[in-house]
Write a structure and sequence with these properties.
The chain has 308 residues and is of the alpha/beta class. Helix content is 33%, strand content 28%.
């Protein structure tokens, strides 16, 4: 796939001297879903705002579909749909009129058939003539997405798209995002919900203190950085680790009542069988065995801690 958004050495320093972005370089491939994770103040919203032309970069370049966002702003912006974190809608307008206005602002001819397609895709067609003030929070989020899509952008930015939305509606939104990707829309989302990124993103970028720490395929990130642990409950507490396992990644926990063995699932041998044999030979009786695999949240927290 080719990059539809290309960012090179991007920096943003505000008049106060605060560096919001520090040399960000990133390629976003056409047709992918990429999730940007980071704590508050990491630079996620600044990055999106800069790509969309809302914030002027201090240095570096950004192109969208080959258009520079500074020198070719109109061409770049016409390819972008932006769903902001805030509910920026006219409460006394209808979804249909909101979409007509947004399409017109981008210089597109009136096309109610296309608007109908977008509203149906977002399960909003039966609410097309309702006042936005009467819609639920989840429906208002959908109207924001419809508003961002009606000028037929190739890239859609979703800034915290499910903030304040309950779990059921959040999962419905995930399905909407997947459907949009199937239609060829490239989607970049920022989120505080780790499970959201893990569930729908093709790649994950982690941002902290204005820098991109890594960008990797979701599955690869989980397999390369995720740890798997075997917890061994003992019948009787052990005072210390047996000499036979002292040189392995084994830790005595809970006042000697359990052992934690950390291992790499990608290796040909995990070493579990040999470990259990050595523990048995040392006279330790095992009551129970359980395994735990690192979640994306744990990986994310570890990465951000390293930059603190």
């Amino acid at each position: 796939m080719s990059a539809i958004v290309s960012i090179r050495d991007l920096t943003k320093t505000y008049q106060s001297g605060y560096e919001a972005l520090k040399g960000v370089t990133l390629d976003i491939e056409e047709g992918e879903i990429i999730a940007l994770l980071g704590p508050n103040g990491a630079g996620k919203t600044t990055l999106i705002s800069t790509i969309c032309g809302i914030v002027t970069p201090s240095s570096g370049t950004i192109t969208v579909g080959g258009h520079d966002v500074v020198t070719g702003y109109r061409g770049a912006r016409s390819l972008i749909g932006l769903v902001p974190q805030e509910l920026t809608l006219d409460s006394f307008e209808t979804p249909m009129n909101t979409c007509r206005l947004s399409r017109g602002l981008f210089g597109k001819k009136r096309d109610d058939a296309y608007i109908e397609k977008v509203l149906r895709q977002l399960s909003l067609w039966d609410k097309k003539d309702s006042k936005i003030i009467a819609l639920s929070g989840g429906m208002k989020r959908r109207v924001l997405i419809a508003k961002a899509l009606v000028h037929e952008p190739r890239v859609l930015f979703l800034d915290e798209p499910t903030a304040g939305v309950d779990v059921e509606l959040r999962k419905e939104m995930w399905e909407v995002v997947r459907t949009l990707r199937e239609d060829g829309v490239t989607i970049i989302l920022t989120t505080h919900y780790i499970e959201e990124a893990e569930a729908i993103a093709d790649r994950i970028g982690v941002i902290a203190k204005g820098e991109v720490l890594l960008v990797q395929k979701t599955g690869d990130l989980m397999s390369q950085m995720g740890k798997k642990q075997l917890r061994i409950e003992l019948v009787s507490p052990a005072k210390s680790l047996p000499d036979a396992v002292a040189d392995r990644a084994v830790e005595l926990v809970d006042d000697g009542r359990a052992l934690i063995y950390t291992y790499d699932t990608t290796k040909e041998r995990t070493g579990i069988t040999a470990l259990l044999n050595d523990l048995q030979s040392a006279g330790l009786q095992m009551a129970d065995l359980t395994t735990h695999e690192s979640s994306l949240e744990e990986i994310f927290v570890d990465l951000v801690k390293e930059t603190a």
